[in-house]
Give the backbone structure.
Amino acid sequence: MMRLRGWRNIMRRAFPHMAIPLLSGLVALAAAAQNAAPKSGAVTESVEPPSNGPVLKLDKKYWSGFLSDPKEMIKPGFTGENHFWVKAVLFAGAGLALYRYDENIQRWSQEHKGGTSDSVASAVKPLGQGYLALPLVASWYLIGRKARDGRAQETGRLGFESFILTAAATQFLKFSTHRDRPNESLDHGVWNGPSFSNRHLSFPSGDASSVFAVATIFATEYKEKRWVPPLAYGLAALTAMARVHDNAHWSSDVFVGSVVGYLASKSLYNIHHADKGGEVALLPIVGDGRRGVLVDYRF
């Protein structure tokens, strides 16, 4: 009986860490099966065998993109192909507004913690870690290459590149700002400035940027499958919020981290798919004593 109870306790503690990765694996298998299954009413004889599909190699051109793609992503001006700076300015405004309420949100999150929120935060935490994200995108690429699935290969390739570029940008911001974490200081406005110290690395959240980088690639590549974007972004949002719940980051940290991952992946996808990205419209507002400009941006 003692041994049985011991195993029960082990499984009870381990399950929250296993549940989300297991769910992600099942979702991946379901997506692969849905791609492989013939459409209803389709003539199966005319479908090209998967073995005749493209093979996207990790060649010199791919690796050189790690240096050339960031230059394309952050081209100066507001008329660039990806509208990177338009998105950045809009999100920066939202981040500054959220920054004012960091302490209030942190206080509320800590006062309302409970068993359920602890379990959820513990379950989604691995999604923001490289030891899960990197094997996921690598496996997706290898499975796609074996099956000659061009989109799966491209998802793996872009997912890996986005993860690396996002991590580099995040670490640059962390070591440039050295913001105190909420478990280090109750004052959300403590910024220690550039240094090589491994302490006070709250801004931005690395977990949030990493999980949103990978989630955005999957959500964009498989956007025609209605359940993929909500699932990908939903898990990413839970992972980001878990960092506030665990008192490891301020709310503005996870917001900016999420934006960094999202922008990096969206811009990277647009570059590789020759997509013009969102559309910007500037609409004048005149009348009723009001004058101004309305910015209409569609992602």
Summary: The chain is about 65% helix and 5% strand.
